[in-house]
Amino acid sequence: MLKFFSSSATNKVDGKGRVSIPAPFRKVLQSEDSPILFLMPELLGGPTIIGFGQSHFENLARSLTKMNPFSPEYRALANAVAGKAHQLPLDETGRIVLPKELRALAGIEGEAYFIGTLNTFQIWNPDTYAADEAAMLEIARANVDKLDWAGAMGGES
């Protein structure tokens, strides 16, 4: 059974940086062999945090190991992915402590906006997300034809 991160939620962040992971996202993480959450900065430099489970991290690692380990591209990507990823266990109530540098990157203080993006999810400052949402929707509408419906439906693309 495929499990994906979907839906969205805004949750409070306390003074110590603790925030509850939305229940649907916790279910996806708990469906994995090791329910560890990975968080890292968004690779394209956006003001958001990317979250995912161990299986997605393993896919990233497999992709990296196919590269020449002595190339500058490998070094840059390995540093950005493995070097900047935080492995965080969820406490018994489903909370984590957002690392201070990630909170600063995303400008997260009193609230965090979570949005599922299938294999990953994003954590935003709610105001920043709201300001970018119209532009993202415009890009989505302009590119809806790029979805591979034939492949998604089990047919040939």
Quick overview of this protein structure:
It is found in: Cytoplasm, Nucleoid. By secondary structure, the chain is an alpha+beta fold. The protein has helices spanning 23-30, 54-65, 72-81, 100-106, 126-143, 149-152; strands at residues 8-12, 18-20, 37-41, 49-52, 86-88, 95-97, 111-117, 120-124.
What's the SSE blueprint?
Elements (H helix, E strand, L loop, with lengths): L7 E5 L5 E3 L2 H8 L6 E5 L7 E4 L1 H12 L6 H10 L4 E3 L6 E3 L2 H7 L4 E7 L2 E5 L1 H18 L5 H4 L5
Antiparallel strand pairs: 1-7, 2-6, 3-4, 3-5, 4-8, 7-8
Provide the CATH topology: Chemotaxis protein chec
| Class by alpha and beta content | alpha+beta
Write the CATH homologous superfamily: Transcriptional regulator MraZ domain
Fraction of residues in helices? 25-40%
Please, what is the oligomeric state? Answer: single chain
Radius of gyration: 17 Å
Give me the number of helical elements: 6
Overview of the structural elements:
With 157 residues, the protein is an alpha+beta fold. The chain has one domain (8-126): 3-Layer(aba) Sandwich (Chemotaxis protein chec). Helices cover 38% and strands 22% of the residues. Strands 1-7-8-4-3-5 form a six-stranded antiparallel sheet. A two-stranded antiparallel sheet has the order 2-6. The longest helix has 18 residues, at 126-143. The two termini are 23 Å apart. The mean pLDDT is 92.
